[in-house]
Amino acid sequence: MVAKVKWTVSVPVLAIAALILTWGRDLPPPVVVVVGLFLAGSVLAAVHHAEVVAHKVGEPYGSLVLAVAVTIIEVALIVTLMISGGEKTQSLARDTVFAAVMITCNGILGLSLLVGALRRRIAVFNPEGTGGALAAVATIATLSLVLPTFTTSRPGPEFSPAQLGFAAVASLGLYLLFVMVQTRRHRDYFLPITTAGKVIDEEEHLDPPTGRAAGLSLGVLLVALIAVVGLAKGVSPSIEAGVAGAGLPQSVVGVVIALLVLLPETIAAVRAAARDRMQTSLNLALGSAMASIGLTIPAIAIAMIWLSGPLVLGLGGTQIVLLVLTMLVGTLTVVPGRANVLQGGIHLGLLAVFLFLAASP
User: pTM surpassing 0.85?
Assistant: First the structure.
């Protein structure tokens, strides 16, 4: 255990050192490989420390900590790339946020359901909390990503400044309302339950970490997430060059960014499902989707005060169809409060469709 803790502390620190040494430089292929290894190590360290913090504060606060932390860093990465990327990043926020929604609502959710169902044949969760979370995701996603396609104040799939401001305030308001419901008013809706429907209010097999250990893990978690996003930005030119060299659309860059940033939450959700904590997995999946939109859109709206050029937010027809299908299938999945491998496989199939159409629109 001591060696594990030392490893999970030292790797993020070394990753930050690598980030400082490589920041703003063109990286040759061997250095990109080394940076990629530090990136992977930081992801694993982030998952470990997120689980320590989650065990200390309990659910649903633990899921909320990781979702918000990752999303804040994701916003910083998007804004940084938009500042330095010029016209080719006008749709980066849309591409990344939409990719995050599809990855969380189909990839993380589907993989968690599959793992949970394989472990217990039936994955059991709370439909009240999960359904409310999915409804909030659908509302915020439609408001921020679908409506710009149909508004007429600006040519193209864009909001006018007033519309963007309203969408930002509404998205943030809905997200904060959800957090209040999740953590205070109906906290029991978001706690893991047994197959018999009994709420699991706390972990029974492990003593909670001390306040000092949890504080250290929280600090190292933030360091690890900064390293993940910073190193992802460092290798982004190589990603963009690879995307262009393969003849893929520019939107694939947003998909790759979302995959990298959401990797810690994916691992944490799958591990929770393997421990028969399905509600924790769904909290991570849907909470991450909601935070990705509810925090990103307001931050981008503020950043547009200083950024020049249009902000393309509206989805295309194919993307809208995928979003609608995801929300419809998600509703049918969460309403019963029970799922098997079929539902998990369907959501993973939708993720595969999204990834294929992103590369071959």
Answer: no
